[in-house]
Design a protein that fits this description.
alpha/beta, Rossmann fold, seven-stranded parallel beta sheet, 14% strand, binds NADP nicotinamide-adenine-dinucleotide phosphate, binds D-gluconic acid
């Protein structure tokens, strides 16, 4: 009897926590996981974002549970996981999505700004992963998906803190995979290319005459797909890495970038 391969991708009966999933990439990933059958929990810091997100999830027919929690606060994260366990059951899938960026030339960037980016984009993934790993170890099953970036591989002007954090997140992914693989826990990452979300909105702002932002034109020329990604482009990779279809995939960074990392760029 041939394997029903689609069953491998089912998330029925599993609970997923997607951090920072009030909108943007996190929201799309949560939507994708829900469509594969997962129960969804998400968090963010801003009450207004939370309320709006709950309405958005409801409009999509997703009964998501939202929690106010700053992922850099270890005690708050521990309480978040306990609350989710009470409301939805153990966290089977953790997506470390919450993140910020500060685009400041390094010589002008304060250490406080640098630390804030690293705290949210890297240390928080350590904190949330540490909060769910003991339960996953006990159940001998778990999926952790970190949201890396092209800046896990490449640098560019003004993003020193972000690139440092995302480079570290790539290695944290590999280290969790190395340390906890024996408990049947898989830790992988998704590396989105340039995705149209509020985080990149400043890079896509049109001129008064409707002309493209220079960075927008640059990304279009650097991407074989000749377009920015949509958050929905990441759903398939998230379902794959959250499901039984990826049980022998560990420590992998899956780039979903339209080919930008493979391409020298179109001749002007
Ligand atoms: P976004 O639109 O700015 O959304 C970020 C989300 O994270 C918001 O829901 C925000 O909600 C939440 N958040 C920020 N800091 C938080 C904290 N300390 N605790 C809890 N929640 C927090 O960003 P995005 O573009 O969707 O990006 C999501 C992830 O993908 C980030 O890790 C980003 O680095 C990564 N990424 C983005 C792109 C891209 O091109 N957009 C590409 C590669 C990787 P609150 O402000 O209410 O907390
Ligand atoms: C930037 C962008 C990028 C994207 C993403 C690319 O300023 O260069 O914000 O960092 O967010 O990380 O993969």
């Amino acid at each position: 009897m041939a394997t029903d391969i689609l069953k491998k991708f089912s998330l029925e009966g599993r609970t997923a926590l997607v951090t920072g999933a009030a909108y943007g990439i996190g929201f799309a990933i949560a939507e994708g996981l829900a469509s594969a059958g997962a129960r969804i929990a998400f968090n963010c810091r801003d009450r207004e974002h939370l309320e709006t997100a709950l309405e958005s999830y409801e409009s999509k027919g997703i009964d998501a549970r939202g929690y106010l929690c700053d992922v850099t606060d270890e005690q708050a994260v521990s309480a978040l996981v306990s609350d989710i366990e009470k409301d939805l059951g153990p966290v089977d899938i953790l997506v470390n999505n919450a993140g910020i960026i500060k685009r400041i030339p390094m010589v002008e960037m304060s250490a406080a700004d640098f630390r804030e980016v690293v705290d949210i984009d890297l240390t928080a993934a350590f904190i949330t992963s540490k909060a769910v790993l003991p339960g996953m170890m006990e159940r001998k099953s778990g999926k952790i998906i970190n949201i890396c970036s092209m800046m896990s591989e490449l640098g560019r002007e003004t993003v020193s803190a972000y690139a440092s954090a995302k480079g570290g997140l790539k290695m944290l992914t590999r280290n969790i995979a190395s340390e906890y693989g024996k408990y049947n826990i898989q830790c992988n990452a998704i590396g989105p290319g340039y995705i149209a979300t509020p985080q990149t909105a400043p890079l896509r702002e049109r001129g008064a005459d409707g002309t493209r932002h220079p960075f927008d034109s640059f990304i279009i020329a650097k991407t074989p797909a000749e377009r920015w990604g949509d958050p929905e482009d990441l759903m398939g990779a998230a379902v794959f890495l959250a499901s039984g279809a990826s049980d022998f995939v560990n420590g992998h960074i899956l780039y979903v970038d339209g080919g930008i990392l493979s391409y020298i760029g179109r001749q002007p």
